[in-house]
Q: What sequence folds into this?
């Protein structure tokens, strides 16, 4: 039966169910396919998780659009102007390579919002790590939470003591030079840099203070939509690589940290990108 409006209860139930789907495959035998143009791999778990999420959304909100990693945009309503059109942005399994190797560092990421003047105005966002049952969830203007406890970004002020996290996803060829130059610069000026292989989960861990900053380019909307809301609601600062307000639909690069460390991280990135 259709519901009137998505809420945190619906989102939590949905993302936990998707997590259970992935756990049914985790560290077991499953089909793996290579994506075109050397863009990584996709597994049975990705497809099954995405199918469950999309079916549940369409059942309860049949007029909402859905942008998902494996199937792209599912458009259910004719609204050429797209003013305040509801949109879900889904990564059914972020960290597929980790997942395929039995590495528990992976997650599901779901964001709900509306298109406002062609920008995504996030209303709800969640990132769930099934292997640890860690649920990061946020609602616009109402804070961010980890398993029911409110979270905030780190309040560290000294960049030298900061642990920064990044990734390199689809960086190939010449794009690797900016990546490696930046890694060297940040490694030299910070406590250390980490690469874990799941951007949405890295953003969630930055929102709760485990990491003091995150950056990556390029990324897709489903990698960042929920995580960006978590950072904002955890009192952090999130921008694109030009230092402007971040939009997951139009910005391929993201910087997320606290207000104390932002300028130094931005200045380093600005030298190489």
A:
């Amino acid at each position: 039966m259709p519901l009137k409006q998505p809420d945190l209860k619906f989102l939590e139930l949905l993302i936990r169910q998707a997590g259970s789907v992935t756990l049914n495959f985790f560290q077991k035998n499953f089909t793996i396919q290579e994506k075109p143009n050397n863009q990584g791999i996709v597994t049975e778990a990705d497809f099954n998780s995405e199918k469950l999420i999309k079916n549940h959304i369409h059942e309860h909100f049949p007029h909402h659009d859905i942008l998902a990693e494996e199937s792209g945009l599912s458009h259910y309503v004719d609204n050429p102007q797209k003013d305040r059109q509801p949109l879900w942005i889904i990564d059914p399994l972020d960290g597929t390579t980790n997942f395929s190797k039995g590495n528990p560092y992976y997650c599901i990421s779901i964001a709900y919002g509306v298109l406002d003047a062609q920008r995504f105005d996030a209303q709800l966002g969640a990132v769930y790590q099934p292997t640890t049952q860690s649920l990061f969830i946020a609602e616009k203007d109402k804070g961010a939470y980890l398993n029911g406890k409110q979270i905030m970004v780190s309040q560290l002020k000294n960049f030298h003591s900061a642990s920064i996290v990044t990734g390199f996803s689809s960086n190939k060829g010449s794009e690797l030079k900016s990546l490696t130059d930046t890694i060297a610069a940040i490694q030299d000026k910070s406590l250390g840099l980490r690469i874990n292989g799941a951007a949405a989960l890295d953003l969630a861990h930055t929102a709760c203070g485990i990491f003091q900053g995150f950056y990556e380019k390029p990324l897709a909307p489903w990698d960042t939509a929920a995580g960006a809301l978590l950072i904002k609601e955890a009192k952090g600062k999130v921008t694109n690589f030009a230092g402007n307000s971040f939009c997951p639909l139009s910005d391929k690069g993201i910087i997320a940290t606290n207000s104390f460390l932002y300028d130094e991280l931005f200045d380093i990135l600005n030298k190489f990108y």
